[in-house]
Every structure is written in structure tokens, then in C-alpha cells.
């Protein structure tokens, strides 16, 4: 017989405590010294992050966060809190729901404590990343295991790895897109958060990734956890729902950091190519994120819009993410149950 509530730990990436340069600096240091994010030897990582990236990037990054910030705070955190509250209400007393952020607050540690204090019989870890990457989902699971390792009693634990083509989730993204006049756009862009190619190769157990031109564009037994293949899987599922033929859309990757090669094509280069071909109106999905955040609200809706305009294009419209949509909360409830 098992007693106690069932614990649900929702985890998203995190955000600074405020958009001040100091808080952004602290956030970037914690984020980028994670060995799963900047996966180079410890000494080089400390020098690179503490000596170069955090001091130099915190100023420009803080300006972007100031543009993003709302009176209630950072969108990724606000949506996380609303989803956690909605999920708790939907699942009822049999469950205890807690929200943790991988970086900054509320921390995963505080969320786990909340669950353990309620003597939960089990914990389901639900990373808010549809596609698996060691730098996102892997890091969340790593942190949960590091914290649980200190406990005398470790309850049953379930880790959700990915849900990149989960049909009820795809349906909400697609439905959000149907609010736009899809036929009126010259092209549809599925822009995912990028990842260093090096990390794809490290995650590849079958010597498969990046070996041929299209090997990371379809999920198979050989690459079922490949971030690129899963991202393509999300895009294909959306395209199918919306009856988009292959010539109507492009899959690309944004937010590259540093000079090493990341997954290609890069969104900025695709924008350039489309503008040269005469495209004026683009509809963009950002389905690596289940909540709108800096990467969608500022990078796509503001920066890419401005760049595309300079290139001769006109409109970059963003399909809103799942955010705190009650249908999304119901989808999570069904997945964790
Ligand atoms: C979708 C999941 C994510 C993966 C995979 C990921 C990898 C990754 N990110 C960086 C560097 C940065 N990312 C930044 C912001 C950011 N990243 C994600 C998600 C993933 N990152 C989100 C949801 C956000 C936005 C958070 C918010 O507050 O709204 C930033 C900070 C902003 C900036 O200065 O540009 C950096 C830096 C790397 C290096 C990486 C993989 C190696
Ligand atoms: Fe990121
Ligand atoms: Fe791959």
C-alpha cells in the first residue's frame, strides 16, 4: 500500500531575478557554468564564462531582459507559476504540484523540498522542453538526481524525457496558428533553439548524427534522442496538422552563442535567403518553448522582425506558445497521470 500524494515537479529553464545587469550576470554565470550547457573542461569553462561571457554579455543581455520584463516579472516564470497553479487545481488533492527553475528562482531545490515536506509517495519530473537535449532536459534530470542523492528516503521517481510529437500538444500549437490567415503568408518558419553540433555528436550512441546530409532530420531507433531529429519531428507533426506542403516551410535554429558550429540552418541566414527570394510575410513557430520567453518575444518578434525588414521583408508574425492555456494544462495533467 502506498500512502501520500503524488508529486509533480514542473521545471523550466529559468530567468534572472530582475532585469538588472547584476542579476543577469548572476543568472548567466549559473546557467553557463553548467557543464551540460558549456561542455568544455572545467578550467576553460570558468575562464570563458567568468572572464569573458558573463561580464561582457550581462550588459547587452540585461537590455533585452528590460525590454521583455512585465510589471509581474519575466514571462517564462509567470507562465510557469500559472501552469503550476492550474495543474494543482485540475489534479486535486491526490497530487502535489511544485514549480522549479533550473537556473535561479524558484529553484529546483525549493520545489523538491516543497514536495518532500508533503511526504509524497512519488515524484514525476516534467521538464518543460518538448525535445530532449542534454543542455536542457538532461541538465534538469541531473540536478534532480544530485539533490535527491542527499536524501535518506528517495521516493519513486519518474523522469519524462521528451514529448516532441505528442499529438494533443501539437494540436494546441496548430490551433494557435489557425488564428492567423496562414494562406496569406509567403512562408512558414519553424525556428527552434539552437545547440552546438558537438553536443549532438556526444549524445549520439549509434555513430549516426551529422554523418550524412539528412541523418538528423528524421527520428529513428538510431537517433531517438537527437535534439535536431526531435525538433524536425515537431515541425513535421505541425506541418501535417496544418496541411503544409514541404515547399511551404523551413526548419531552422536560432540563438547561437560563440563561434563553434551549431545545428544548421541558422534562422538569421534563412531569413536572409527568404528575403532574397522575395518573401515579405513570414509566420514563425517557436516550438522548442512551451512558454513565450526572451527567445520568442524579443529575439523573434523584435530582433528578427527588425532584421527581416532591413533585408527587404515586411512581417514576421509569431505564433504564440502554449503559455498558460487551460488546454495545455489539461495535456500536462493527462501526460503525468
Ligand atoms: C529549448 C531549450 C533550450 C536549450 C536546448 C538551450 C540551450 C542553450 N542555451 C544557451 C544559451 C542561452 N540561452 C538563453 C536563454 C534561453 N534558453 C532557453 C532554452 C534553451 N536553451 C530559454 C527558454 C531561454 C530564455 C529564458 C528567459 O529568461 O526568457 C540565454 C540568455 C539570454 C541571452 O543572453 O541571450 C543564453 C546565454 C546555450 C549556450 C545552450 C546550449 C549549449
Ligand atoms: Fe538557451
Ligand atoms: Fe542526430
From TrEMBL:
One GO term (biological process): heme biosynthetic process
Principal location listed in the UniProt entry: cytoplasm
State where Fe(2+) binds.
193, 295
Q: Name one GO molecular function term.
A: metal ion binding
Q: Which Gene3D superfamilies match?
A: 3.40.50.1400
- Compartments (UniProt record): Cytoplasm
Q: In which pathway does it act?
A: Porphyrin-containing compound metabolism; protoheme biosynthesis; protoheme from protoporphyrin-IX: step 1/1
Broadest EC class? Answer: lyase
One cellular component term (GO) for this entry is: cytoplasm
What's the catalysed reaction? Answer: heme b + 2 H(+) = protoporphyrin IX + Fe(2+); Fe-coproporphyrin III + 2 H(+) = coproporphyrin III + Fe(2+)
Give EC number(s), comma-separated.
4.98.1.1
The UniProt record lists the keyword Metal-binding: yes
Keywords, A to Z, come to: Cytoplasm, Heme biosynthesis, Iron, Lyase, Metal-binding, Porphyrin biosynthesis
Record PANTHER family: FERROCHELATASE, FERROCHELATASE, MITOCHONDRIAL
- Stated family: Belongs to the ferrochelatase family.
Q: What does this protein do?
A: Catalyzes the ferrous insertion into protoporphyrin IX.
Which protein, by its recorded name, is this?
Ferrochelatase
- This protein's encoding gene: hemH
Amino acid at each position: 500500500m502506498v500512502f501520500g500524494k503524488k508529486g509533480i515537479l514542473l521545471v523550466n529553464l529559468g530567468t534572472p531575478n530582475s532585469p538588472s545587469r547584476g542579476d543577469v550576470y548572476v543568472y548567466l554565470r549559473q546557467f553557463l557554468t553548467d557543464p551540460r550547457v558549456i561542455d568544455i573542461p572545467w578550467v576553460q569553462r570558468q575562464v570563458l564564462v567568468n572572464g569573458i561571457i558573463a561580464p561582457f554579455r550581462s550588459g547587452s543581455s540585461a537590455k533585452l531582459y528590460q525590454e521583455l520584463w512585465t510589471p509581474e516579472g519575466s514571462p517564462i516564470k509567470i507562465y510557469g507559476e500559472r501552469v503550476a497553479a492550474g495543474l494543482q487545481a485540475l489534479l486535486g488533492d491526490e497530487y502535489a504540484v511544485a514549480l522549479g527553475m533550473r537556473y535561479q528562482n524558484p529553484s529546483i531545490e525549493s520545489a523538491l523540498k516543497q514536495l518532500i515536506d508533503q511526504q509524497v509517495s512519488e515524484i514525476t519530473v516534467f521538464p518543460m522542453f518538448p525535445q530532449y537535449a542534454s543542455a536542457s532536459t538532461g541538465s534538469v534530470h541531473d540536478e534532480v538526481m544530485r539533490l535527491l542523492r542527499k536524501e535518506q528516503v528517495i521516493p519513486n521517481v519518474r523522469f519524462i524525457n521528451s514529448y516532441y510529437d505528442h499529438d494533443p500538444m501539437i494540436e494546441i500549437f496548430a490551433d494557435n496558428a489557425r488564428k492567423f490567415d496562414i494562406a496569406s503568408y509567403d512562408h512558414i518558419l519553424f525556428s527552434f533553439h539552437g545547440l552546438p553540433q558537438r553536443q549532438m555528436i556526444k549524445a549520439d550512441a549509434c555513430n549516426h548524427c551529422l554523418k550524412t546530409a539528412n541523418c538528423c532530420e528524421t527520428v529513428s531507433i538510431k537517433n531517438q534522442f537527437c535534439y535536431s531529429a526531435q525538433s524536425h519531428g515537431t515541425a513535421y507533426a505541425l506541418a501535417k496538422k496544418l496541411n503544409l506542403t514541404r515547399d511551404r516551410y523551413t526548419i531552422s535554429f536560432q540563438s547561437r552563442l560563440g563561434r563553434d558550429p551549431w545545428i544548421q540552418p541558422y534562422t538569421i541566414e534563412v531569413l536572409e535567403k527568404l528575403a532574397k527570394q522575395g518573401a515579405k510575410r513570414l509566420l514563425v513557430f517557436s516550438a522548442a518553448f512551451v512558454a513565450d520567453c526572451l527567445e520568442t518575444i524579443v529575439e523573434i518578434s523584435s530582433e528578427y522582425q527588425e532584421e527581416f525588414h532591413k533585408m527587404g521583408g515586411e512581417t514576421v508574425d509569431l505564433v504564440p506558445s502554449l503559455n498558460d492555456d487551460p488546454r495545455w494544462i489539461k495535456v500536462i495533467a493527462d501526460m503525468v497521470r
